[in-house]
Inverse folding.
């Protein structure tokens, strides 16, 4: 049950990253400039994907 909740949370975070990336690219295309938040967002994306991967690996270990 806890792994299911963790996986749902990771899924929401990955979705939020996708939304943020879309907003960032829309800004880049509209203004032809890259905001300073790109560095922070890239680090956040990396953390979210690493956590989602860890949850998926752990879930795979627990499945029969």
């Amino acid at each position: 049950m806890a792994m299911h909740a963790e996986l749902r949370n990771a899924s929401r975070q990955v979705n939020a990253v996708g939304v943020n990336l879309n907003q960032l690219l829309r800004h880049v295309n509209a203004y032809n400039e890259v905001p300073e938040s790109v560095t922070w967002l890239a680090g956040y994306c990396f953390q979210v994907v690493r956590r989602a991967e860890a949850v998926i690996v752990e879930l795979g270990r627990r499945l029969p």
Notes: The chain has a mean pLDDT of 84. The chain is about 85% helix and 0% strand. Helices lie at 2-31, 38-62. The chain has one domain: 2-62.
